[in-house]
TrEMBL record:
<dbReference type="InterPro" id="IPR015931">
    <property type="entry name" value="Acnase/IPM_dHydase_lsu_aba_1/3"/>
</dbReference>
<dbReference type="GO" id="GO:0003861">
    <property type="term" value="F:3-isopropylmalate dehydratase activity"/>
</dbReference>
<keyword id="KW-0028">Amino-acid biosynthesis</keyword>
<dbReference type="GO" id="GO:0051539">
    <property type="term" value="F:4 iron, 4 sulfur cluster binding"/>
</dbReference>
<dbReference type="InterPro" id="IPR012235">
    <property type="entry name" value="3-IsopropMal_deHydtase_ssu/lsu"/>
</dbReference>
<dbReference type="InterPro" id="IPR004430">
    <property type="entry name" value="3-IsopropMal_deHydase_lsu"/>
</dbReference>
<keyword id="KW-0100">Branched-chain amino acid biosynthesis</keyword>
<dbReference type="InterPro" id="IPR033941">
    <property type="entry name" value="IPMI_cat"/>
</dbReference>
<dbReference type="InterPro" id="IPR050067">
    <property type="entry name" value="IPM_dehydratase_rel_enz"/>
</dbReference>
<feature type="domain" description="Aconitase A/isopropylmalate dehydratase small subunit swivel">
    <location>
        <begin position="536"/>
        <end position="660"/>
    </location>
</feature>
<keyword id="KW-0456">Lyase</keyword>
<keyword id="KW-0479">Metal-binding</keyword>
<keyword id="KW-0408">Iron</keyword>
<dbReference type="GO" id="GO:0046872">
    <property type="term" value="F:metal ion binding"/>
</dbReference>
<keyword id="KW-0004">4Fe-4S</keyword>
<dbReference type="InterPro" id="IPR001030">
    <property type="entry name" value="Acoase/IPM_deHydtase_lsu_aba"/>
</dbReference>
<comment type="pathway">
    <text>Amino-acid biosynthesis; L-leucine biosynthesis; L-leucine from 3-methyl-2-oxobutanoate: step 2/4.</text>
</comment>
């Protein structure tokens, strides 16, 4: 008899297992999704898909929408309507489209006029929408943030957003388990941002590919929830699908009294806490990858190049190509130095800055603003700083900061005090860098053009960015404000009042749970049917020219820059593909050297990239849409960003992993000769089309191949198993009742849901709360 003893499981294994609706023999899993966050950029095409197929949102009670990427961060004092407030037409259309969609599909929405509006990854935890042990998704790569709660949280593309809206599930597979253990006390001036930048420097931007990272060790345990969120946020920059931290007392304390968490001391709360605390990795559980880091090796860390792995301690110098062994890295270094306008050997602290940005889903929470305020208190920003911005992560963070007088401290020092949004993290709104400008930024990505075409980004912690603003160059916070950087002892006390105040009136409650009184009648009323599937073109074989590229870490910002994400359609993006590389800066004139501007590659159907990690970064499905619109249906590379890899399949495209570099070079050589390739999916081989020579064979997951070859739309397939989804929902209601109705008892939300308001302590304006910082 086989043993009934369960093998030891990791935290990830446990959370994953509790959400399996169906598992096929080939490892394909239908995974139930507890929480779905929605924003304006990656949702319009998903809602359009629902409408076209007469589908409705399966669980409006588990869906929360807001606007963040495209909105101005200027004062909302004169805000009347979105139409009048947002000047830029494309951005306005995306926001008003979301407004229409939330009404039509009956979704909870924090709009521009709602104090709870903010960056999607800040408002979820703030409201208690994010809970331990849940699965959380969003059409956004930094959904990994929510893993700080011991949730399995990851970014998805727009087709998957549509899949979750329609079915409340996703089709996926198990990831690898990766452990990153950090032990010891963090040094003065070292925050969780420094820890995560250091980790990415160690593992590289592809280090976590295909894996879910569990962050553990005594240094992680000592971090506050907000600091843990900053770390999990950047798991995606380490290539991982998600990052997780096991729930503990810090987690439970943070959740107490959050509007959408179960009510403290209720039977549900007790049951939930028991479950949450059971979510930890069993002794002897197996990890596929293990990384150990000693806290004393971590200094305040800063990026020098155009990839988040390009980091050095602030005391370091700009590296040169000779500092790297591998050829791909040497070339990447040369390219990065050129783009960043830096010379190898320059001390980091001598690099002059133009702008400072403190904000983003990584570092725009109240603790971040407090940390920055402590550094700038009573000082002025340097004369050479043209603009320094503080952009709070949510309306509630802003309100709390104002109560503590942080706005005053920042404004007195010369910073702008803005409204909540993504802002200069990616510059989809008017907050951007001009070409050549250099910015100290608390965001998470330093890709070419990320904060504005030609802009140069250095990533760092809020305290380091504040120090840089004061000095005017990249600066060591330990020298600038030694008195403000004592390392934290134990877990900082968690402030709840920012998140709890103002929810006592019925009006506010109605707005939190913004069920529309009169939903517009665009959404279908009837239950969806499996046959409503839209279908996809079939992919059996492909013959065509293959454009060769030899760049490592081609990110989705490079494939399709942010200014083209403002569309509400999937089509028409081909002309914008690789825009910054394909056209001369500032115009529509083609760069003659770029491969897609050369014959015969203007007509490429395939792309062969010899550098690793193609499609890393953002979850924007606009990247595969742009490739497809150009005519490219197949990409061959040594490895891919996980979300991009998924997104291509959803669009009937085929990404092929060839990790044998010699084989890859052989394929690239044929494409460089201008000969056509033949990709035969049915037989899983790549041939030289001119002579039939087989160049490579490749692997593809059985289920994905089946869908491509037969042109199957997997929403339709999933809906065919709706009975299994219902069974899981029944189990969920029984075992995890707090997850229904956004944490309320109601099984199905009928109109606004009321919760009891709780009394909260107030903080006096003008006083910085004296509690330890996260370092
Ligand atoms: C717009 C969105 C798809 C994107 C992401 O997925 O990360 C954005 O948030 C970013 O940071 O680039
Ligand atoms: S990374 Fe930047 S753009 Fe993306 S969600 Fe976070 S704040 Fe917004």
């Amino acid at each position: 008899m086989p043993s009934a003893v369960k093998p030891p499981q990791t935290l990830y294994d446990k959370v994953f297992q509790d959400h399996v609706v169906e598992e096929k023999e080939d490892g394909t899993v239908t995974l139930y999704i507890d929480r779905h966050l929605v924003h304006e950029v990656t949702s319009p095409q998903a809602f359009e898909g629902l409408r076209n197929a007469s589908r409705k949102v399966r669980r409006p009670d588990c869906t929360l929408a807001t606007v963040d990427h495209n909105i101005p961060t200027s004062s909302r004092k004169n805000l009347t309507t979105t139409d009048k407030f947002i000047e830029e037409a494309d951005s306005r259309t995306q926001v008003t489209t979301l407004e229409d969609n939330v009404k039509a599909f009956d979704l909870t929405y924090f709009g521009l006029d709602d104090k709870r509006q903010g960056i999607v990854h800040i408002i979820g935890p703030e409201q208690g929408f994010t809970l331990p042990g849940t699965t959380v998704v969003c059409g956004d790569s930094h959904t990994s943030t929510h893993g700080a709660f011991g949730a399995l949280a990851f970014g998805i593309g727009t087709s998957e957003v549509e899949h979750v809206l329609a079915t409340q599930t996703l089709i996926t597979r198990r990831s690898k388990n990766m452990k990153v253990q950090v032990d010891g006390e963090l040094g003065p001036g070292v925050s969780s941002k420094d820890v995560v930048l250091h980790i990415i420097g160690v593992i590289g931007t592809a280090g976590g590919t295909g894996a879910v990272i569990e962050f553990c060790g005594s240094s992680i345990r000592a971090l506050s929830m907000e600091a843990r969120m900053s770390m999990c946020n950047m798991s995606i920059e380490g290539g991982a699908r998600a990052g997780m931290v096991a729930p503990d007392n810090t987690t439970i304390e943070y959740l107490k009294g959050r509007p959408l968490a179960p009510k403290v001391d209720s039977p549900e709360w007790k049951k939930a806490v028991n479950y949450w605390l059971s979510l930890k990795t069993d002794e002897n559980a197996k990890f596929d990858i293990e990384v150990y880091i000693d806290a004393k090796d971590i200094a305040p860390t800063i990026s020098w190049g155009t990839s988040p792995q390009d980091v050095v301690p602030i005391t370091g110098k700009v590296p040169g190509p000779e500092d790297f062994q591998d050829e791909v890295k040497k070339e990447a270094c040369v390219r990065a130095l050129k783009y960043m306008g830096l010379t190898a050997g320059t001390p980091m602290q001598e690099i002059l800055l133009d702008k400072v940005f403190i904000g983003s889903c990584t570092n725009a929470r109240i603790e971040d603003l407090r940390a920055a305020a402590r550094i700038v208190d009573g000082k002025k920003i340097a004369k050479n700083i043209k603009r320094a911005m503080i952009v709070p992560g949510s309306g509630l963070v802003k309100t709390q900061a104002e109560k503590e007088g942080l706005d005053k401290i920042f404004e007195d020092a010369g910073f702008e005090w803005r409204e909540a949004g993504c802002s200069m993290c990616l510059g989809m709104n008017p907050d951007i860098l001009s070409p050549g400008e250099r910015c100290a930024s608390t965001s998470n990505r330093n890709f070419e053009g990320r904060q504005g075409a030609g802009g140069r980004t250095h990533l760092m912690s809020p305290a380091m960015a504040a120090a840089a603003a004061i000095v005017g160059t990249l600066a060591d916070v330990r020298k600038i404000a030694p008195q403000s950087i004592a390392p934290a002892k134990g877990s900082p006390k968690i402030e709840l009042d920012a998140h709890m105040e103002d929810i006592s009136s019925d009006e506010d409650l109605d707005r939190i749970i913004d069920a529309p009184v009169d939903p517009v009648s665009v959404a279908p009323k009837s239950a969806p049917s499996a046959s409503a599937s839209a279908g996809m073109p079939k992919f059996e074989a492909l013959r065509g020219y293959a454009a060769p590229m030899d760049v490592a870490n081609i990110d989705t910002d490079a494939i399709i820059p942010k200014q083209f994400l403002k569309t509400i359609k999937r089509s028409g993006l081909g002309s914008a593909l690789f825009h910054a590389w394909r056209y001369v800066p500032g115009g529509d004139q083609e760069s003659p050297d770029f491969v897609l501007n050369k014959e015969p590659y203007r007509n490429s159907k395939i792309l062969v990239c010899t550098g690793p990690n193609f499609g890393c970064g953002s979850s924007r499905e606009h990247a595969p849409w742009a490739l497809l619109d150009f005519g490219i249906k197949c990409i061959i590379a040594p490895s891919f960003g996980d979300i991009f890899f998924n997104n291509t399949f959803k669009n009937g495209m085929l990404p092929i992993r060839i990790d044998d570099q010699a084989v890859l070079e052989k394929i690239a050589a044929v494409s460089k000769e201008g000969k056509e390739l033949e990709v035969d999916l049915v037989n899983q081989v790549i041939r030289n089309a001119s002579n039939g020579e087989q160049l490579a064979s490749f692997d593809v997951e059985e289920f994905r191949k089946h869908c491509l070859v037969n042109g199957l739309d997997d929403i339709g397939l999933t809906m065919a198993s709706v009975d299994k989804i219902e069974q899981h929902e029944a189990r969920r209601t029984r075992e995890w009742p707090w997850l229904d109705g956004s944490g309320y008892l109601a099984r199905h939300r009928k109109g606004p849901v009321k919760i009891e308001a709780q009394s909260v302590p107030k903080t006096n304006r003008g006083e910085i709360v004296k509690e330890p910082l996260d370092w």
